[in-house]
Amino acid sequence: MLFKSITAPYFPEKAVFILLILFALPLPKLVFGQGKDNSDTLEIKLNKARGAERAEILNQLTLKYVLSDSIKSFNYFKESLRIASELGLPAMESRAFECVVNGLKNEQAVGRLNYILSYFQEKKYNPGIGFAFSYLGKEYLLLNNYEQAEGFQKIALETFTKISYQYGISLASERLGFIFMKKNEFIRALEYYYEALQINQKEGYEKEVAVSLYHIGLTEYHLGDYDLAVDNILKSLAYWEHVKNVANIWNCNEILGNIYIKLNVFETALNYHRNALKIREKAKSDEILKIHHYTSVYDLGIAYSYNNIAEVYLNLHQYDSACYYAEKSLGLKEVNGEALPDDIANSQLNLGNIYAKTGKQDSALILLNKAAETFKETQNGSSYAEALYGIGNLYFDLKNYDLAKENYEAGLQKSIEVADKNNIKTGYKLLSDFYNDRYDYKKSLEYFLSFTNLKDSIFNKERTNIIEELQIKFEVDKKQHTIESQELLIAQKKRQVTFALTGGALILLLAAGFIILVLRNKRQKEILLQKEAENLRQDLALKEKDLELKNRELVCNVSNIYTKNMVISKVAKTLSNSMSNFKQANTELIREIISELRQNMDETSWKEFEYRFSKVHQSFYDILDEKFPDLSPSERKICAMLKLNMSSKEIAAITMTHPESVDTARSRIRKKLGLEKDENLTEFLNRL
């Protein structure tokens, strides 16, 4: 798999929305042989292939000739589109459009798409017209012409809406969402994203659902709603891990890492970014082993990860490590033909901030100014604000307070314009510290109050707990997906046997029925799982209450033993004191009765207690006897009462001994159980 994902955008560190766009990325350049053999192989496969497989081979041939023979490429494109339309595969139709312009420069792609648009308008093929307008909008967005991009996407949306073409409506809505996200109009972006998500969920477009969730999470990240961002990104990540889409797995890891940077949870952020780096390095290694070749785009991805790791180390004040990774990142990007201006500017920003911390002010100022100029040109408001803050910090350290203040205020103003909560918070804090240092305590307090109010809205305990819960839920869902995958594999094997017996027609019917059943039952299964989880929680609570009640009953039972023994002892003592009053013939009988009472008063009651105790704590005595066979019967009784959380004083009263004797017995028991001095005997017994 190449670096760029076919299904979703890749993630270039802090400039999170510049390249994160499904429709703005070209397809990966497939590595074909340069000679005749590869074409011949594809042509042979094409003659044998049918259905979706044939359409995909046609797409590969479209890609093969897109630069060298536009007529042949266009003919393959038309045939692929025809098959995809007949089969009702809208995603395959969209892929055909990707292939017919892949590798072309933006201006060339616009010309090719205008020709395709005219062709479909002449043929009056509305889906083709809609796709052509949508892909024209994509190309104009890459040219930073937002007005044209938005206009073409809206025409595409209108075209698809007229014919109720749901996939096209979703695609155009997703792309309009991205346009507004790039224009920093995040609320409008969310409106279009949620429109796309609703269609994708309703129609069962699972891959497209994952892309929508990803973009929604990204937008919430910009709005500072980190709990919603984490929730949506984790849901998207679960799908990419399920289908083993490597590029999108590292995409999600990177944005999660950046969210945790904003939350100041730097160790977690570092783990996510190191994980993304590991995945990228493995992808590069696998590609080299597979075809003994790789494209420079792999190195660009590794450079992104280096820059993210450098940012984490900068926040951890580990400047040597930060400098090492930032310099490696910038070096790779400057020699890489795939790097966009924002990519390079991100590394310049990071390295400039690091140099400022390590005393290299001149180099820092050059890098920070370069980054700021680039971000301003590309209209990347959030990163432009960060660059201005970095410049302000540098001037502050150089004691040029006027320029420091000017850059702080400009950065805050830009952050407010793009509604970047985290950057607004940073601006408030910087200006509060600035005025405090300049002894203007009134203004310092005003900015500090604004800072704390915004900080509390972003970093409150409830949100932290929600994010932790989402992480736990994600891990549980991963295990559930594993189980579902195994069940699906078994179901597939069963269907294969059925397919062999019933033939091709039955295959289509069963597959269609299975898909419909899954879609209909999906929500019901979720409700059932929620109910089952709630029932399990209730059962556990009831069991805990039941155990507590039974323990109380056992304590009462032990108390009854004590009461009975006291009565029996008193009767025996009374009989013994009165023996002189009995006739000589009855004296021996009375003595035997007293002896039998004293001998059996413990046994009967304790046997009854032990019977009841073993019913509540079924395996306690078995484990105790197996692990510690040296315990005496009286020590076993004390262990049972300790498990009921009875104190030495209570045990002494019941066994009619002194508390000191019970403490001595407890010491003997501790030795026999092999407990350390700091280990609690009662807690140990409760774990058995």
Summary?
By secondary structure, this protein is mostly helical. The protein has helices at residues 36-48, 51-65, 70-87, 90-101, 106-123, 126-142, 146-162, 166-182, 186-203, 206-223, 226-242, 246-262, 266-291, 297-315, 319-334, 341-357, 361-377, 381-397, 401-417, 421-437, 441-458, 461-502, 504-577, 584-616, 620-627, 633-643, 648-655, 659-673, 681-687.
Overview of this protein structure:
- With 688 residues, the chain is mainly α.
- The protein folds into 3 domains: 343 residues, Serine Threonine Protein Phosphatase 5, Tetratricopeptide repeat, CATH 1.25.40.10; 100 residues; 72 residues, Winged helix-like DNA-binding domain superfamily/Winged helix DNA-binding domain (Arc Repressor Mutant, subunit A, Orthogonal Bundle), CATH 1.10.10.10.
- It is built from 29 helices and no strands.
- Helix 11 packs antiparallel against helix 12.
- The two termini are 52 Å apart.
Please give the structural blueprint.
Blueprint: H1 36-48, H2 51-65, H3 70-87, H4 90-101, H5 106-123, H6 126-142, H7 146-162, H8 166-182, H9 186-203, H10 206-223, H11 226-242, H12 246-262, H13 266-291, H14 297-315, H15 319-334, H16 341-357, H17 361-377, H18 381-397, H19 401-417, H20 421-437, H21 441-458, H22 461-502, H23 504-577, H24 584-616, H25 620-627, H26 633-643, H27 648-655, H28 659-673, H29 681-687
